[in-house]
Amino acid sequence: MRHVDNVKRDIDAVHRHVEALRQMADDQGHISQSDVRAAASSIQLEDLDAFDAAVHWASAGMESIFLQDADSLIMKPAELLDIVIHIKRCFPWVLRITSYARSHTLARIGDEDLKRIGEAGLNRIHVGLESASDKVLKMVKKGVTKQQHIDAGIKVKKAGIELSEYVMPGLGGIEFSEEHAIETADALNQINPHFIRLRTTRIFEGIELYEHFKAGRFRKCPEEMIVKEIKLLVEKLEGITSVFKSDHMNNLLEDVEGELPDGKEHMIASLNSFLSLESSQQALYFLGRGVGIFRGVQDMEDPRRLQAARSAYDRLGATPQTVEDIIIELRKGSL
Questions:
Q1: Cys-Cys link to 195, which of 4, 73, 164, 237 (CB 3.0-4.6 A)?
Q2: Pick from 240, 261, 276: which residue ends a domain?
Q3: What is the pTM of this model?
Q4: Are strands 96-101 and 64-71 parallel, antiparallel or unpaired?
């Protein structure tokens, strides 16, 4: 936990550099690299991080701020409100301020406090739902129940704050794959978040789940099973208007996205397009996805992309039986 004054000093430091950069901008808002280099040459070493943050933010358009890198709402509501107000005072043009938050944390915040924080400018919250199966949540020690997830999500929306819920396909392993999809869809149907985002489960060395996997206590879903799990999840989403996103490199099919309910048919078609491939073609796609060539199965229709994937497949000596191990190696220890 950091003191409010300490956080404000960071904000003020970035603000000071942002204002200097804005003074350098031409009529179109562009800042020359030579001006940036000249300004950097006079920055004290202890102030360089704030300057770099200001430069990167300026190059990205300065429309959004993220309170990173964890559960910022664990702060006392009055303190977080103070910080958000200070941000808006320094950067009044900002369109969005975002933070992560745990459902367990949100459940402890009063409705009026959360509403005031939202009205002050914190207008999007990302929640790691991960799963709404109580069995899966208990297995991974998430520290929250399905009902707490639902209550927290509804509370965020009631406060007028945009809500993004993250789901982890594969988190239940083979044993709980179906329940994981069905229970998670049921919770999302009750919450109706603004966004549903997929983050496929990858198991890294050094975490407890990795030890369970190596010991055979956790049976990891193969990629085809994860695709079937996502399909079941999408099929069970009913009566909601969420934007569904698969916007992460860890996801096998990045093009599975759309706005519900109208986009549901397209998403299922994208999932079916992978499931309809022969095993050798699935393996080729998997490898091509792993090295960043493909976003979706339709990319295999591009001759240049397809040839690049085939070249990588042959170079790495991949087969349908070995391709997953090769991808694991490319991901440097994650499963």
A1: 164
A2: 276
A3: 0.91
A4: parallel
